[in-house]
Amino acid sequence: MASAAAEDNPVRVPNFWDPKAVNDRPATVPDKIQFLATDDYPPFVFRDPQGRLTGFNVDLARALCQELGSSCALRIKDFEVLVPALEEEEGDAIISGLSREASATRHLNFTEDYLKLPARFVVRKDEAADFDEQDLAGKTIAVVAGSRYEAFAARFWPDADILSLESERAARDAVRNGTADAHFGDGLGLSFWLPSNAAENCCTFTGGPWLEAGYFDEGMAIATRRDNPELAAALNYALRQLYQEGVYRELYLRYFPLSFY
Fold first, then answer.
1. How far is the C-alpha of 30 from the C-alpha of 229, rounded, in Å?
2. Which residues, in sequence order, are CB contacts of 66 under 8 Å at separation 6+?
3. What is the pLDDT of residues 25-83, one digit of tens each?
4. Which of 139, 189, 202, 226 is 20 to 30 A distant from 51 in Cα terms?
């Protein structure tokens, strides 16, 4: 499991890089990096009310280029043509949440993960102190039917009452209104739901984060062509540097003020 280091309690910023690993600057660094992305992927890449590109991935790409001393550009494409555009050299790297497991991406190189998306429990605030995620016998856990969260809960908490519902909204509402003792679901999405009006200040994270292999371990990484290993090496170097220098922390807290770790 990747570590999620508590840096200033209660704010938790994830760390996916070994602080003891040697991180020498590569001998070859690109003069320019043309990133490819889609612009309908908030909070990672989206357009603000004025139509300007913004988001975690946008600022991360800029920071990577600054770290490397490379000029930087971001070209927007529809998601389904990102891989063909990379293959046709319309860009150098895709920063848009591609899955390593998809058949269309298995021939690409990927950097180390710069973000993983853990599962989390949310419970009503007045019950958080008594909730023990290791002992859920008799507890009702709301999950989305057919999801990996449902599969994980059914396997690892067989003594719990798994309440499978048709949508994230229904599962969240179940814990909010007391139909369920907890909801087990997407930590990122829940970090935006908890402070929203829809949550009615009902609930809080507890336990976790859960990053179990085969369920929640696939993270976000930058894809490059296999014929460009120098770029992948440079990006990995820059990602580690950004974490060590505190830049990653600042970006994470800018876009995820309620940490999902």
1. 11
2. 72
3. 988 899 999 999 999 999 999 999 999 999 999 999 999 999 999 999 999 999 999 99
4. 189
